[in-house]
């Protein structure tokens, strides 16, 4: 009942309550992002959604325009505090997770949930093995089990296992625990960046994760 219906109702209610606060963030952060290098305020990142459907995930742009796309060995996007691609405001909004807040719009649209597995890149679809595609059974989330308890400290394949664990144990109480655990982690700024140097250049994308 909760997984198939009530969870979506909770998402809509929460997103609509949060929307005025996000608009305030937009009015403050948006002009700073723009005037720092006269670039776009948002970055629309293609991601895998429910049942493998690709959608545009909204983020505040944290990187310089036309920054190269660097990847870790597992194909995940490179993310480090000393990343030279980050703008000054970009480093701040990454540390505070403000760059993810535009995904409230994705929740309203129905692309995402407040709590759920973090979405993968479209090219990762072919890299799933065995039951790993089960990750796509539900809507991806702004935050999730991995982000609440591990942040950026576990490799991609381990994150998928945790995502499937979340799906198998999904309940309103688990979502509540993840929500408050995420809030604590964000306030403490725990493990926001990963120290990973095995990267490879790909096509220019403007920003990474």
Please explain how this structure is put together.
With 209 residues, this protein is an alpha+beta fold. Helix 1 (2-37) packs antiparallel against helix 3. The chain has helices at 2-37, 88-95, 103-109, 145-149, 156-168, 172-188; strands at residues 42-48, 54-60, 67-71, 113-115, 141-143, 200-206. Residues 195-209 have low confidence and may be disordered. It has one domain (2-190). It is 41% helix and 15% strand.
- Count of separate DSSP helical elements: 6
Largest sheet: 2 strands, antiparallel
The whole-angstrom Rg is 16 Å
- Assembly classification: single chain
- Would you list the SSEs in sequence order as H and E? HEEEHHEEHHHE
Number of DSSP-assigned strands: 6
Sum up the overall morphology in one term.
Answer: globular
By secondary-structure content and strand pairing, the structural class works out as alpha+beta
**What is the distance, rounded to the nearest whole angstrom, between the alpha carbons of the first and last residues?**
33 Å
**Strand line-up across the major sheet:** 1-2
Determine the fraction of residues in helical runs and give it as a percent range: 40-55%
Q: Give the averaged pLDDT, no decimals.
A: 86
Write the topology of this structure.
Elements: H1 2-37, E1 42-48, E2 54-60, E3 67-71, H2 88-95, H3 103-109, E4 113-115, E5 141-143, H4 145-149, H5 156-168, H6 172-188, E6 200-206
Parallel strand pairs: 4-5
Antiparallel strand pairs: 1-2, 3-6
Helix pairs in contact: 1-3
């Amino acid at each position: 009942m909760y997984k198939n219906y009530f969870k979506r109702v909770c998402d809509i209610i929460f997103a609509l309550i949060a929307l005025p606060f996000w608009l305030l963030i937009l009015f403050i952060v948006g002009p700073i992002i723009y005037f720092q290098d006269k670039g776009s305020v948002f970055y629309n990142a293609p991601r895998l959604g429910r049942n493998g459907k690709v959608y545009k995930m909204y983020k505040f742009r944290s990187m310089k325009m036309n920054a190269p796309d660097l990847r870790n060995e597992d194909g995940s996007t490179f993310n480090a505090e000393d990343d030279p691609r980050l703008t000054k405001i970009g480093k701040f909004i990454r540390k505070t997770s403000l760059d993810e807040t535009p995904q409230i719009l994705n929740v309203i649209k129905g692309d995402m949930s407040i709590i759920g597995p973090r979405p993968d890149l479209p090219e990762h679809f072919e890299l799933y093995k065995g039951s790993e595609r089960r990750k796509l059974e539900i809507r991806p989330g702004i935050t999730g089990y991995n982000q609440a308890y591990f942040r950026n400290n576990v490799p991609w394949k381990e994150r998928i296992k945790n995502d499937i664990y979340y799906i198998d144990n999904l309940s309103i109480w688990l979502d509540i625990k993840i929500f408050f655990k995420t809030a604590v982690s964000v306030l403490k700024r725990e493990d926001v960046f990963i120290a990973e140097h095995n990267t490879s250049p790909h096509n220019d994308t403007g920003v990474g994760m």
